[in-house]
Specification:
globular; 6-stranded parallel β-sheet; two-stranded antiparallel ribbon; single chain; about 40% helix; alpha/beta; about 220 residues; TIM Barrel
Length: about 220
């Protein structure tokens, strides 16, 4: 199980604004404590952002400075996380312009040399230009938590509208599930979606459950 929060966006750990960075660190520390108090082992972390297209007030952070600040931030958060036994799992975002390949993600995570710095893998966030079934084998056992997010490459606006209900996109789910199986991942698979149905929203719950059963071979 795990904990995630939207607060890494208004208070990014790599912001050019020192006050935003300071508040981001405070909040990340509180999130780690909250995860521990709730009895969950994982915390989703957005380690940094070069760009945030959804924030008009965000001053872009140069790539090298973003990487430096992100490493410093995670390094400062790690001692408390290790003490509380909460894993800090870096999420692949893509839209933030940071950690854009599995190699970059591994190069960010591995130097910490800690079992408490890992990866929260989101299948949909990389689909704009890449493919989750290519990432999963390279990330391997670094993956501690997963967001199953459907994405459609048929659109051209690359907005949140590209994210769809499960099986209503262009994700090669058989290949993705096979990659997870071959990697040995046996943790949580959490569906993430941004657009509840305007009418009879409970229908999405049933559609998601049925889709997951089919994807995981549980449908009779």
């Amino acid at each position: 199980s795990g904990l995630c929060s939207f607060l890494f966006w208004p208070y990014p750990l790599t912001s050019n604004d020192p006050e935003e960075r300071k508040r981001g660190m405070e909040l990340a520390g509180l999130m780690t404590k909250a995860a521990h108090d709730l009895g969950v082992e994982n915390l989703l972390v957005v380690p940094g952002a070069v760009h945030m297209p959804w924030r008009e007030d965000h001053d872009p952070t140069p790539n090298d400075l973003c990487a430096k600040r992100a490493r410093e931030a995670i390094g400062k958060l790690l001692p408390s996380a290790e003490k509380l036994k909460v894993k800090l799992n870096m999420e692949n975002i893509f839209f933030n312009g940071f950690l854009l390949s599995p190699e970059e993600m591994n190069d960010f995570v591995d130097p910490f040399g800690s079992e408490y710095v890992n990866v929260h893998f989101d299948t949909g966030n990389i689909m704009i230009f890449q493919f989750p079934e290519h990432w999963i084998p390279q990330l391997g056992n670094r993956i501690q938590n997963v967001h199953l997010k459907e994405f459609s490459k048929k659109g051209t606006d690359y907005s949140l509208e590209c994210f769809r209900p499960l099986l209503d996109g262009t994700t090669n789910w058989p290949a993705v599930i096979e990659a997870f199986d071959q990697t040995g991942y046996d943790g949580y698979l959490t569906f993430e979606y941004f657009h509840p149905y305007p009418h009879y929203p409970e229908a999405l719950i049933h559609q998601t459950a049925d889709s997951l059963d089919r994807m995981l071979g549980l449908h009779s």
